[in-house]
Design a protein that fits this description.
Length: about 260
């Protein structure tokens, strides 16, 4: 379903990003990877970049070949990283890259953002999300302080994923005249190198999630969902966030609404 397609994948060198690159190849496509670290998967091209800096992203956009059929925004920092860096990479940098690259994408391209179950509570963060609508790199530190999106309880990470889910919805038709669509996938806890960071940050909350679930997710559970959204078969799915979380979001919704 991805025969002949070329997809740019950020965060390609480990975890879910690595598996997405492998899945793209399995579906007949090729991946161009972006990461700070060397990849372990065969790629059509690789670009080393720091997605926390505007200048580095601008250089990356200039260097990437034109005509890619998709972009997967998978690079991200865990909640144990400094809050300003989490916002720079997971939200501001992601948006800067996407908006810079979209003009070079092929018509009919698909953009897939890796959000998270951590973004589930976005309706309770509307004011913060609106305040971040025009956030740029220079304003990140002040925003973190003013809107209390620091590291405590993983708030910086949760906020970036809340804002990303909303940004995906907002861009449901932004590039419709070119047939370019944007969607997101929200994994639950996934067994990757950064899973211990989440357990460390969330403590008892994470342990409770693990008791409820039958198992953590695996990158192989997430990658096929992303690959489908990249394919022409998902052409009429626009601005949608797909949970891939072993049923956790449904569990939370049933609890909220009394359907235990």
């Amino acid at each position: 379903m991805l025969d002949g397609k070329t997809i740019v994948v950020t965060g390609c060198s480990s975890g879910i990003g690595d598996r997405i690159c492998r899945e793209i190849a399995r579906w007949g496509g090729s991946a161009i990877g972006v990461d700070r670290n060397d990849p372990t998967v065969d790629l059509a091209g690789f670009f080393r970049a720091d997605l926390s800096e505007a200048a580095a992203i601008d250089s990356l956009v200039e260097a990437l070949p034109a005509g890619a059929d998709g972009l997967v925004n998978c690079a991200g920092l865990p909640p144990t990283a400094p809050a300003d860096q989490v916002l720079r990479v997971n939200l501001v940098g992601l948006k800067h890259l996407t908006l810079g690259l979209v003009g070079k994408l092929a018509d009919g391209a698909s953009i897939v953002n890796l959000a998270s179950l951590a973004g589930f509570g976005w309706p309770q963060a509307v004011d913060q999300i609106k305040a971040a609508a025009t956030l740029d790199f220079d304003g990140v530190a002040a925003f973190v302080a003013a809107h209390k999106v620091g590291n405590e309880g993983g708030r910086s990470y949760f906020f970036t994923k809340e804002a990303l889910v909303v940004w995906t919805m907002q861009n449901r038709w932004t590039w419709r005249d070119r047939g370019i669509r944007m969607n997101s996938v929200s994994p639950g806890p996934v067994d990757t190198p950064i899973l211990p960071d989440f357990i460390e940050t969330l403590g008892e909350r994470a342990e409770e999630d693990m008791r409820v679930m039958d198992r953590p997710g695996r990158p192989a559970d997430i990658a096929p969902v992303v690959a489908f959204l990249l394919s022409d078969g998902a052409g009429w799915i626009r601005g949608t966030n797909i949970p891939a979380d072993g049923g956790m979001s449904s569990h939370i919704l049933c609890g909220i609404h009394g359907f235990e």
